[in-house]
Amino acid sequence: MPKRKCSFTDELQKSFPAFRPGRDKWEALCTVCKAGRYVSVSNGGARDLKIHLDTEKHKTAVRERGMSAGRVLCDVCPNSAVKTCLTCRDSYCMTCIRPHYSDPDLERHQLQDLQDQNLCEQHHKKLKFYCRTDQSAICSRCLLKDHKGHDVVEQDAQCKVTKTGVPPPGQIQFSSVQPDSVTLRWSPPEGAPGLHRFRVTWRQGQEQHIIMVAGSEVEVTGLLPGEKYHFTVATLSEDDCESPCVEASTKTEIPAPQNLSVDLQISHVSLKWTKPAGVDQVSYLLDLFREGECLRATHTDCVELRLSDLQLDTEYTVRVSTVLGRLGQSKPVSKSFRRAIPDPEYLTVSSITASSAILSGLLLSTLGLGDLHGGKLTLSSVLEINSNTLSDRPAQSLEQLPWAFLRKLMMSNLNARNMKYAQDQTMYSYSLTDANDDSDAINLLDLITALFHCSDPFLRQEMVSKMSMCQFAVPLLLPNCDTQQSTLMLWAMRDLVKKFRTHSVEGDTIFEEGRIVEMDIPIMSFVRLGESSLLKSEILNKLLSNPHQYHDTFFHRYMECGDVPRRISDGLVEVSWYLPCGKKNIDMFTQPVTIANLRGDGRLFKTQMSFLCEISAAVFIFSDDLERDLSTLNNRESRAELFLVTNSQSKTFNMEALRDVCMKHKVKKTNMIIKKKQNDAEFVKALRSHVSDVIGKNPIKMKVEDMAAVARRVDILVDEDCTECRHGRANAESITGSIQDVVKFKKDQLPLHGEIWKQISRLEKENCRMHHAGKDIEGYRSSLKTKKKQLGEKQQQTAVSKAMLKFTAGISQSGTQRLYFLKWLKIQLDTLSRHNLSTLREKYKDCCRNTPQNKELIADLDEQISNCSLGPEHFFRELGQLYECACSLPEHNLARQQVQHLPALCAQMLLDGFPVELVDGDASNIPMKWIKEVLTQLHQLVDTKSKILVLTVLGVVSTGKSTLLNTMFGVQFAVSSGRCTRGAFMLLIKVSEEFRSELKCDFIMVIDTEGFKSPELAPLETSYEHYYELATLVIGLSDITIINIAFENSTEMKDILQIVVHAFLRMKEVVKKPRCLFVYQNVSDMSAHDSNMRDRKKLMEQLDEMTRAAAKMEKKVANAKFTDVMDYDPDKDSFYIPGLWHGTPPMAPVNAGYSEAVYELKKSLIDCLQSSDNIRNNNATEFIEWTESLWTAVKFEKFIFQFRNSLVLDEYTDLCTQYNTWEWRFQSEMNKWRIAKEAMISNFGVMDKNVQMNLLRTRLREWIHEASKKLSEEEQTILSNLDECFQKDSKVRLVEKYKQDFQTSAHSLRRQMEMSIKHSLEKAVEIREGMENVNKIKDKKMDTIEKRVSELLKECRERKADLSKDGLNREFEKMWEGIMSDLSAVRMPELDVYQDVHHLLRSDLSSKGGHVSEMLNTVDLRSIGQREFIVKTDWLSKEKRWFSLIKHLSLNPVIAEIQEICDVVISNCDSLISNHISVMERNNTDYHEMYVRDLLKAVDDRLKDPQINHECEASLKFHVCGRAAKLFQKAHKEFNDHNDPQNCLIESKPIFLEKFLESFSEKDQCQKRAKQFTETCVKPAVEGYVSEHLGQAVADQMKMGDGGVTYSTRTHFLYDLLKQLLHEDSFQKYKEYTRSYGTFVKNWIKEEIIKKMSSGEQMQQLEKELLSEIVKKITATITSISKNMDIKEFIHKFCFDLQDQLVFPRDALDNFLILINAKTDQFAINLMELIEAMKCHLYQKYAYKTGIIHIFERIKHLPSKPHELLFPRLCGCGEQCPFCGTPCEAGGVDHRTHFSSMHRPQAFAHRPLGLGPYKQDSRKLVTDSCTTAVISEGTFQSSETKKVYHPYKQYRDIYPNWEIAGDSSMEASDYWKYVLKKFNNQFAEAYNAQPADIPHAWTTLTAEDALRSLRKSFNMQ
User: Fold this and answer.
1) What's the predicted TM-score (pTM) here?
2) Higher pLDDT, 1148 or 1200
3) CB neighbour list of residue 1194: distance below 8 Å, 6 or more residues apart
């Protein structure tokens, strides 16, 4: 395939600015070289350009251009240089210097600024001087140091001399550059032909040389290689005058290596070369290339090198360069070679190792393992979740075979050895081998050998463990074809633990358990010498198998691919163990025995044979070829008994030869085992008999770990001999070596997580549950805090133990060494614990048998057995406690600094696949600070790519939960019978890069929990509590929960299901509905799923019943079915798994059906994770928050918790912010719509006086219908936004339970707005209708006058008399007197407002009973409202009066509370009255009964307190209406006076006179009329428009502008309000806030508005914006109206077009239209000008009125007040906590549940009737907070409980709509504790009570603590 050409691209031109595009795209033009030079770039692109830049011609051109320009040029391009590199010794322009800033190798170079001047190379100073003696430019330091006494002048003087001197020679060129010499050439001076003498100078460093030359060429010798030299040449005249110098520099070459040779060997390639001449200290750089790619770079001081692991039939190129330190390297010398595949027929026994090495490389490459050779395959990469995890298809290529094998092996699948290789045919699937061709087939043993060579030590260990579970033989000696050595796999087998029962002589059985490498077991080795017709491996399988339970332990010929020739596995020694179970009918051997099997011909593997002979009790030799060399049996060190096994049916069988061999090698005749004509069963029986005989003779026994010494002696490597392993073991032994008594060791060396940690855990839970609180809850809580602090101090005083120091040092080591250390520690601790447990169990057994009466000893032994376990998890618990203690120290404390690195180490362990303890099962607690920091470090280690999906398993103890997880994912959770897992452990499994998008996560976290119903915990009262806690936590954390059930135990199943149902029910309350899968263990029937349909149905019925029972207990009765609380499909989510073992352990392999069933479960799990919509993808930090909040909730007793963690709060706050924005936009739009319609109502009939008023009612109905339609659209917009928000953001589903509340709030808002708009429009219409009579009277009189004036005007004009102004005035006066006498005096109707109000009161109170009617008959409204309103004792009910007397013999508190409520109502009504009167004055409207109805409704809205009876309500309404009636009567009188027709006529006389005079004179009135219209009609309407819209604009600015976050949600609002209260530190404000929350909040909002609007002229800016907006509309209207109409039509059209924007003053407009006569077009022009002038005038007016006082007055008189618009949205539903009075913060208005982020002590409640601020007996203020009370055992009573004491924990029975989250934090309510502590006396005085008994812990609280508590409570971290 032809190589693709390179072209000169824009990128190349940017990188090489000296070049321009050439004649075509394959060329570049060098702009530096003379006459230009075209450079081809087609071959190498940038490389071609670099080669040109290094040419001498280009460099000469650069130098010439630099000399001619008199400046320093870039050494690469023709641009001016700006920097010089002191390392490269070159100068660069701005472009060419860039690589020195981006290339890591060049960044270390030293750069010097070059400001168009030369620098001294030695001192980097400016060359200011010129040394005539040395003919060189020098700097000031050179002058003082090296040129003393020389003839030195300044450079300027030298330039003057040289200008008139001898001409210089031509430029220097280097014709030859060698390692030790340089040849220089130059041309003669221009204009001076002939011979000349020249002075040549060169310098290297400080040393300078000078020679005189007669010609123009000279060779300089004696130079050093790789050095840079600077040459100067000057012309000498006959009188020895010198010309200016020409200069040039060059660098001598570095000699390349000589005589490079390549020697191709079978197993490696040898490279040799010779050292170049002329150099001393050199090294060499060797680069190895394959297909142009550099595979490796090697730096060496030697002149030869061996290369191995090279692929066959592949071409390589090797390049070798000489390296001279910092001087650089030479050009490389290179050679290419290809390794040929040797012909197999030439391979001999002596060369078998080398050929195997070749085949090893070939095999690894064929299997796709070439890049993993040398232990690069890790356990984490094998366990990684990827697309192949779910693949059922056989391997599609040989490269997929290793992964298919490992995938099945990690799941302990017996079918792992049944490898299928499916080729690409669609219809057929082939085995690894074909009947006719096995060229592509792989022997399983070769695959296993290759995988072990590629695996790291920890993967090897896991592979051996899984192979042993499957009863596969495991490698003992692993051959290495490359190194020709075998390796003893001691480390790989180190973790194998075996259990068995041996038969004693007495007939008893003895149970033994331990690590197999530490057990003394006799070894029987089986080898083959030469040919044997007996199938050794198959016979061994029969030897080890029970006739009824055959199993292929060793891979043999008749298994799939067993007949494929082995390539690299010959020399492999496999080993397996026979372990008896203690049953004679089953056991093949009564004692354990090790079976070793050498693969291949033993004669070729003398080392392995020697090793086996030394370690074995007996060696069984299989051979039919007895006449060949059997010298491998001659081993002096051998102690093994030899057995010769042969086949008499073999063609080569010779009895004589057999006897000779036996005599020669001292084989007993009885040890000859000859297979005659008997069948295999009889032969195996005979062989088994011989083995049993050897075992019965007390044979040689050897531990596997003792084999290491033998292996080293026979030159076999030991895998544990690596440095990291030895150091890890030594470090572990330094800890475990001193352990004698585990319990004592834990107490002395691990004290922090012992009893102290357990006590702290109990205190934390007691702080949540308050079991023993008594009456003084806060005092008790304070004592808990003190105890916890003391325990923490005790922990801090405990010195770090030696064991923990060593452990910390161990885990702080490098990666591999740390892993070895942890593994060794686990191994040694397990061994120690196992030994101690075995000893204690024997003692316990003896004690129970012999001295059962000694109860104390039995109890002590029982406790020791419970506490004897010791593992790495205990050290990590201690580490966590160390970290927790350190976190409470000051930040810069040394002890705290020393532990900061520990969480990162633990996080790295998680990434390495180690389980990390999440829940301490002994203390039943989570070290939250430690876990949080570990997961935080994990988040950082993976570059925040830490999205996690969580999988959990729950089940009864010893039902195989951990085994299930280990099988499913290949992980290493602790497995044993009994309670091996305590608490919960988490483990991470990585998800591959390509699979993350499908699974939507980076890791799967698997959580393994301890089994429920542990016998160990059964006696404890808290066991069920512990299980409930654990189940709730892990289910809350999980995305999928596996319920593991032993099918045969239905009782235990029912118990666990009860726990699980409770947990799932609680999860529904946190908007989490996990997926649940039921796994039934030990179900082997293949039809189990179908046949158990009836059982599943019954189970669902039980689950539904449990759900209802649990729902009743949890107060969640709405949940009637199991599927209501969890995602579960009985048919799809039920899995039946057969038993784990196939047969009787310990010789039973894992059941293949078990592995396959687990695999199906795994696929289903992954599929669930992929497809489920309910699963959230939390990253590590979000998982932390979820865990912390969930655990806090779990710690509350009986789990009556309200779960609101920071994640939920964040999402809820975000949702509230969005919803409030939508709601506010909705409200703002509808307010603008309402204002427009009200303007149209006010303008109704203004222009058209003949319009019928009933038309207004028709319009009203149309508008109400329009409003309803618009409201529906806006409501639907909010609902659509809400749905979209929940759909696009998965995290919003955390608050799914609140969605209904927001939807309900949207509906409620719509209803409220509809009612409000309807009420406003109806009120406006009624008021407008009420003004109609007044307007008709005024219109009638005005029409009469205008008609008479018009007649007078006509009469005067007809006289044609030249009337003067005085004459016209006399005529007008005469006419006016006639009008006044003709018009009758009409008076405005007087209304008795008191009577009207009285009538409205009677209608309102008609349903309140006869007594209220009697009160109404006797009430005098004229006087009642003028006195102060005082609540009377008689108004209380008898029951309440009795209750008050019983409690404190005083009615004052009850009356005071009612009095306060009434005072607030009166204050609000006064404000409402003031607003109504302002509207009347502003709009010139009369009193209307709607105003009184508004007042009565306002009173009804506030009087919802059940303490206020009908008498009190009626009296309050009398008082309010009496005050209102007086003010409304006064306003009505003022209205009548202002609108009296006679007064109006008198006031209009000057206007008529003026219009009369102007009309008679017939002067142009356009300018004057336009001005009148602007001043009297437009300007008031514009100002009214600004005022009408300003309130909404201010509210919008407060909510949506800068600082609007305060008003975005109620939570933010309350946070900022309380924060400001804290800063102001005012008791009076705290008192107002707690006593009158609504009033205080409204005033606070008003103050904040005034404060903000007065800063930066924000109010003025809003006014200007509104003014500009309406002026723009006015000018647009004027422009749009046609001017071809008379002036009245123009005005009518103008007012009609703006009727929904401006309210035109009716009287002013009528006056303006009197006798109007103007040209429309000119009027419009004048009007436009005057409108603009009006705008400027109002701008100035607004700008002038600044300051707080003006803003206050401006807001006070606004029709829509901004604080009243904001208040309902921020006050919300207005509900307050029934215990402490804190306001509700729930989003929306109409929500089902009220809650608050921060409750307060009940001293602030101001509710004396049972829920009061003080204790009824002592009258002391109460310090208890309701958040503490609801988790205590305390009780309360109130009017709602009918004076009966009720448990706080069941408060929702009384207040079902309030959700009060129990406060487990000691600091959560510190804000109000601090406030009460500081103002204790003041609050006591305000409540007429005694000061509270402040708990001691409160006395240390500061304002900073209060602020911290405030931030935490409102999640404002």
Assistant:
1) 0.59
2) 1148
3) 1029, 1032, 1033, 1036, 1201
